[in-house]
Specification:
The chain is an alpha+beta fold. It has 31 helices and 16 strands. It has 4 domains: 156 residues, Orthogonal Bundle (Hypothetical protein af1432); 123 residues, 2-Layer Sandwich (Alpha-Beta Plaits); 213 residues, Reverse transcriptase/Diguanylate cyclase domain (Alpha-Beta Plaits); 124 residues. The protein is 53% helix and 11% strand. The two termini are 50 Å apart.
């Protein structure tokens, strides 16, 4: 007859890759924003969850299938998953302009594929009939056919134009009537069948960056990736992996049967604690949801009552915060459900009263690595006593399996033809090399949460998440290739370590000299990635953005001595990222904010530290943060000014601290004195002044520019001189032809 579980695996192997590569074969030509691949997978996940809910409410496999087949619950769920994956297969073979015959063609393709794998009756007919009757107009008969029809409707509910056109409550009820009747026929009136499950890891900074031992940092990161693999395995075995809308970056969003929502919450919580032994996760579950909620978010769901919402005082502020000043109708969708659930998750995090505790009595020897927990193990390699948690992370970090590194190796082999890659550094000292300094880069997409909140359907939500994840990963890998260079990547110890890579988040350690250029390359490669450009095209049209939608990314980069505490560096990088993101909201561009700790400091807030180091009474010795274009210009100017003698550059840096006119006179004197470099100096001075904010009426003096709003003078010259001293101008090391 054919094992349904094996058939699902064969589908993934034979057709899944082909559909994934054809990522812009759309599920609906009226909605150019959801790929067919994402729609099929989400329908499969929803169908599995709905079948599981039917089982929990007392339906038997025979009743669901309409045939007397001896199937276990796991096999039945595999049949539901396969039916969801096959239901729109006809669209994969049709031209993108005409899906009118996709049902008939889907039956032909599904039958041919199933018969090729020797699927016998009655399973063959069961699956073929699901494909043939996955629309209401085709009158689904069995419970499985109705479930797939309902799952298909849930997956694309917010994309249905008839629901978007419904203005009054009566019009909305009429537009949703048939699907809601199908829903009630399957699950009754009492309780809707699906819940959303949202999870986010707690205090990851403290878990991953607790010590300065690179094997422990790497081990903590690897353990979090293992958690994600285990969660996916749990869903694969107990429901369907496709029930996960996304899973990565320490969080997940899933659709689960309403009757088992609490059980799934406990499973996810157990996965984190069992694997990490010290990291927990906060999980929240939505109320049971149905077609109306998947289509139009929280009540009210019709445009008329939505437009009538009014409030005074705090209520008015809340309405403005939720809907913004734009058309409220744009926020009534699946993304609104996730936004509400995100708010509940943040509240649950603040109210959490339990965390793993490792008691350390006065008689205990403290761990030589974290200094907090009682030591229990001896690391002979480094002659240190470690607590159980640090030993566990360190042991894991020394193992050969390194997921992110393995993915980078595969990418190099597939895209660059590179077969041999250097080895990851053993510790931070090896990573820092002769410089003795490291850079920590923390990059994150701008306003991605806002974009996801406007996702009309769960299929759209999955499409955005999957595209961002792939684009971020490939942007990082391309940036490493471009910045580090082919030669350095294939020889000896690699001068970087990717700590975190998930969703639109990136955390990378590298040598201080490469930090600025690598962060700049990440921003450039993210913006130019084909999936980012495609998302911009799709959603600018769909969300009716008058000025076009632009997806950007920001980065915070801190450079310091390798001995600095890693948790301290991460906090500073996070603060710099916050400054960059604040500027990005004004500029709507990718932003870079960096800091070089030249001397020991005790401040923990990036903004306060920037003020102490660079802010004077009426002038700022920096113009940070910088837009992508400005950051690129800084590096170009640094390459030119690197030709100027070192003593002259030091004189310029010292003069900046003494005032606007003193530094200007000194700079012009040096330009006149150093005749061989006069043209480079004058051109650089003018260029640094031109790119700073302001217009022609704003007062400017070469590399100084007076901020029209703050009435202070700003300059970027000191930033350029610091980049030269860091030797950042020596990057990127990859040739242009290698990085294209």
């Amino acid at each position: 007859m054919g094992d349904p579980v094996v058939l699902g695996q064969l589908f993934d192997k034979e057709l899944g890759g082909e559909l994934r590569e054809a990522g812009y074969l759309y599920a609906d030509t009226r909605v150019p924003a959801v790929s067919l691949y994402d729609h099929l997978r989400l329908t499969a996940g929803l169908a599995s969850a709905l079948v599981r809910e039917l089982l929990q409410r007392g339906a038997s496999p025979e009743e669901i299938l309409g045939e007397s087949l001896w199937l276990s619950d796991k096999e039945l769920l595999a049949v539901a998953r396969l039916a969801g994956l096959l239901h729109d297969l006809g669209k994969a073979r049709e031209g993108q302009t005409d899906y009118r015959r996709h049902v008939r063609r889907g039956v032909e393709y599904a039958r041919a594929w199933l018969e090729r794998h020797q699927v016998e009756e009655p399973l063959l007919s069961i699956l073929i009939e699901v494909v043939a009757r996955h629309h209401l107009r085709d009158r689904p008969q069995t419970l499985l056919e109705k479930v797939v029809c309902l799952a298909d409707s849930y997956a694309s509910a917010g994309d249905r134009p008839e629901l978007a056109r419904a203005v009054t409550p009566q019009q909305f009820r009429q537009a949703a009537r048939e699907i809601q009747e199908l829903e009630r026929g399957l699950f009754g009136e009492a309780k809707q069948p699906i819940c959303l499950l949202l999870a986010d890891a707690d205090h990851i900074k403290g878990y991953v960056y607790e010590t300065n031992a690179l094997p422990e940092i790497r081990g903590g990161s690897e353990l979090l990736l293992e958690v994600e693999r285990n969660v996916k395995r749990e869903f694969e075995q107990g429901l369907a992996e496709e029930s996960l809308i996304y899973c990565g970056g320490g969080g997940l969003l899933a659709v689960v049967p309403a009757s088992e929502a609490d059980a799934w919450r406990r499973k996810v919580e157990a996965c984190y604690l069992e694997v990490t032994r010290g990291a927990t996760v906060t999980v929240v579950v939505s109320p049971p949801l149905g077609y109306a909620e998947f289509a139009r978010g929280l009540p009210p769901q019709d445009a008329l009552r939505l437009a009538g919402l009014r409030g005074r005082g705090l209520a008015e502020d809340l309405l403005l915060s939720h809907f913004g000043r734009e058309d409220r109708d744009r926020r009534k969708n699946f993304g609104e459900l996730v936004a509400e659930l995100t708010g509940r998750l943040q509240r649950a995090k603040r109210e959490k009263t339990w965390a793993p505790f490792f008691e350390a009595l006065p008689v205990h020897r403290r761990c030589d690595s974290c200094g907090k927990h009682p030591a229990a193990y001896r690391d002979q390699r480094r002659a240190e006593w470690l607590c159980s948690l640090c030993e566990y992370k360190r042991r894991r970090g020394r193992q050969e399996r390194r997921e992110i590194f393995d993915r980078f190796q595969r990418w190099l082999k597939e895209t660059k033809g590179v077969r041999s890659v250097g080895k990851p550094p053993d510790d931070l000292d090896e990573l820092a090399g002769k410089e003795g300094r490291i850079a920590l880069i923390y990059a994150d997409g701008n306003n991605i949460g806002d974009l996801l909140q406007r996702a009309p359907s769960p299929a759209t939500y999955r499409h955005i998440s999957a595209s961002l994840t792939l684009a971020t990963e490939e942007a990082l890998f391309q940036a490493l290739w471009k910045t580090v260079g082919p030669k350095a990547l294939q020889q000896g110890s690699l001068p970087f370590e990717v700590i975190a890579l998930g969703g639109d988040d990136v955390v990378v350690l590298t040598r201080a000299s490469a930090g600025y250029a690598l962060a700049l390359a990440i921003l450039e490669e993210f913006e130019r990635h084909e999936k980012i450009r495609k998302l911009e095209e799709e959603f600018a049209q769909r969300l009716d953005e008058p000025s076009g939608l632009r997806l950007t990314i920001s980065a915070g980069v801190v450079m310091a001595d390798v001995k600095y505490p890693m948790r301290f560096l991460f906090d500073l990088a996070e603060g710099l990222l916050k400054e960059a993101k604040g500027f990005a909201r004004e500029q709507h561009q990718s932003i870079l904010c960096h800091l070089w700790l030249r001397a020991p400091v005790i401040a923990e807030e990036a903004k306060a530290l920037l003020n102490v180091l660079y802010k004077r009474e009426n002038r700022h010795l920096t113009a940070r943060p910088y837009t992508l274009e400005q950051a690129r210009t800084l590096l170009e100017v640094a390459r030119r000014l690197a030709e100027v003698p070192a003593h002259a550059r030091r004189g310029l840096a010292e003069s900046l601290k003494r005032g606007v006119y003193v530094s200007l006179n000194h700079a012009l004197y040096q330009a006149a004195r150093l005749r061989d470099h006069k043209e480079i100096l004058m051109e650089s001075f003018w260029e640094l002044g031109r790119f700073l904010p302001g217009n022609e009426s704003t007062q400017g003096l070469y590399f100084w520019r007076q901020d029209p709003e703050q009435a202070v003078w700003k300059t970027a010259l000191l930033d350029v001189l610091e980049l030269i001293e860091l030797e950042a101008h020596a990057y990127p090391q990859g040739r242009e032809e290698d990085s294209t």
